[in-house]
């Protein structure tokens, strides 16, 4: 039923787990959903005439256990921030500005929306990233295969130069015609 069991700290400490009430979530418009994980600290209200059997989770609670805030270190500026692997020729990632950027680090995905207009979603286990930095450079970095599929035409337009590099073999396949058009076409073996 998309609910979470809650325990009021210092009030229900001795209550057995089976007796704890199930809380519904206060959802954003559009029915977005971010579930809690066991141990998350949340704000709870009792909107149904104060009935403690019908709580509602209304948001995450700020905590400073051991002097460290319970937010991603990318948001707070604390130690432990994710450092992406170095990828030659990759554009710079969004610049983090602690306490000003929107940051979500959940289920192995780090999402950053920077104050300067950058955006990135990174799989923290290996650094696979889709993003755009503050200069508008978009990028995809995949530590595994990359697959693109379109139900129609795919067009790549480069205002100046288009480079395609492969560390191994490269193949082209079509059921139609392959055309190359240019002021000069050179095929160089080497």
TrEMBL record:
It comes from the Bacteria. This is Baseplate protein. It comes from Serratia silvae.
């Amino acid at each position: 039923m998309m609910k979470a069991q809650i325990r009021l700290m210092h009030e229900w400490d001795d209550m057995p787990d089976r007796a704890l009430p199930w809380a519904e979530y206060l959802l954003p418009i559009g029915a977005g959903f971010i579930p809690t994980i066991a141990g998350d600290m949340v704000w709870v209200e009792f909107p149904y005439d104060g009935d403690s059997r019908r709580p509602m989770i209304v948001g995450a609670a700020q905590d400073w256990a051991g002097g460290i805030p319970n937010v991603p270190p990318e948001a707070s500026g604390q130690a432990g921030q994710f450092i992406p692997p170095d990828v030659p020729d990759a554009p710079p990632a969004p610049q983090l500005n602690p306490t000003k950027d929107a940051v979500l680090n959940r289920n192995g995905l780090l999402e950053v929306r920077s104050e300067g207009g950058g955006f990135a979603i990174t799989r923290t286990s290996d650094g696979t990233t889709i993003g755009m930095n503050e200069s508008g450079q978009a990028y995809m970095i995949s530590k595994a295969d990359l697959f693109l599929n379109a139900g129609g035409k795919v067009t790549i337009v480069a205002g100046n130069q288009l480079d395609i590099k492969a560390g191994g073999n490269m193949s082209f396949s079509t059921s139609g015609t392959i055309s190359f058009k240019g002021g000069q076409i050179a095929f160089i073996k080497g």
